[in-house]
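Researcher: Here's the sequence for the chain we discussed earlier.
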Amino acid sequence: MRIAVIGANGQLGNDVVQAFARNGDDVTGLTHEQIELSNSESVGNCLSSLAPAIVVNTAAMHHVERCEEQPDRAYAVNALGARHLALTTCGLGAVLMHISTDYVFDGSKGKPYVESDAPLPLNVYGNTKLAGEHFVRTLNPKHFVLRVSAIYGKNPCRAKGGLNFVELMLKLARERGKVRVVDDEYVTPTSTEEIARQVVALSRSQEYGLYHATAEGSCSWYQFAREIFDLTDTPVTLEVARADEFPAKVPRPHYSVLENAALKARNLNVFQPWQAGIEKYLSDRAAVRQTT
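Model: Thanks. This is the structure I predict for it:
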């Protein structure tokens, strides 16, 4: 099957490309140099020339502070970009798989969010991503919208200076010997490799719609850091940070746990517990370091 993956050089896009390639698909990875989401002509020309059966959009303006500073640009990429993709893919008869975010919720529920819960974003990023969801869901009936949360992967995250949370924790431990992390914000750490596997599994179905797509279970950022250090036998003093110790410049949800209710209802869920994901990531990381 011919697949186009937008954002192919990103943290998630890289693994999505590899997952489709392993599956035997004819996959083309597209970066910002090949396609500009905010430009409808660029989107139309690029995808029309490729004529893919499935388009996977992993690209976004997802630096939360930058979105707040540049709301027009964030809307152009995250919302109008999704609109351009939905219109173009619908015209081509192609499936659109669009990656969204847990930040469409405000975090006040206090228990895992399901797909039927009403979104209420706290910031520009969340609002523009929610707008993008609506464009995709209304303009191309052959769509999958996947909300993900707290992702990490082997490919560098450019929006975070090349470091995901795992690499940041290990770096701080090496440099300082003591790390302080908040224990009152809850997420589901999810590896990009697992999300990519779920994307491929969904692409083989026609169960179009909105899906939460995260690892099973949840933890605080402190608990996630503890698991990272325990699995790597990292000598570090890990302490709980005060709630006001790292004031956020932009409001964020304090509870971002998603439940994969729709995937499970259709017997399509392939995710493991979050602990299994981080164990594999660290095992693969260690294997690579031994060979370099």
